[in-house]
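Hi Y.,

Following your request, here is the sequence exactly as I used it, all 193 residues.
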Amino acid sequence: MHRLIGRLSRLMAVAGGLVLCLLILLTCASVIGRMLNTFLHGRVEAIAPEFSAWALGLGIGPIYGDFEIVEAGVAFAIFAFMPLCQYSNGHAFVDIFTSKLSGRANRMLAMIIEIIFASVLILIAVQLFDGMISKRRFGETTFLLQFPVWWSYAASLFAAVVAALVGVYMAVLRMRECIAGESLWAEGSGIRS
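Below is the corresponding structure, written out as tokens. Let me know if you'd prefer a different format.
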């Protein structure tokens, strides 16, 4: 089971990374298009108005609705990275006080934290589902591109559900550690046999 959860977490992170890379390319293309549009309207138009009009007629400029695509894509990417962060225990934490605690106390604290994380991830997934249903029911669309807002919610919901599943898995693992009285999770390398 732990291998499946690990693969699923990595697959989601790769999907989030690919989406993020595409969003970076989209943003760069839009910024370059905006700069070229300004340049063609300014200096080139003063020197060669026919060329400027021809180039602008090709549609050189920012990508229409780029911020709407970036908004939807970043939301998905954030949720897509959460399963791997949860699986690899990659959340930021300060262990100034916990480093002085016993192994049993640290395992108990890790279990409580994982249960809270799993609960919050489940709550986020439920709220995304409710939001998606609401956006779909009312037919809400984005302002410029007019694509249905619920599509963005659905993509984020899929990633959030995977994050919740990983969170529940990790909470169960931490409970098993408390019952067994030893750490079953070797940080960064997976579960010990």
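Confidence is low (pLDDT under 50) at residues 188-193.

Thanks again,
Q.
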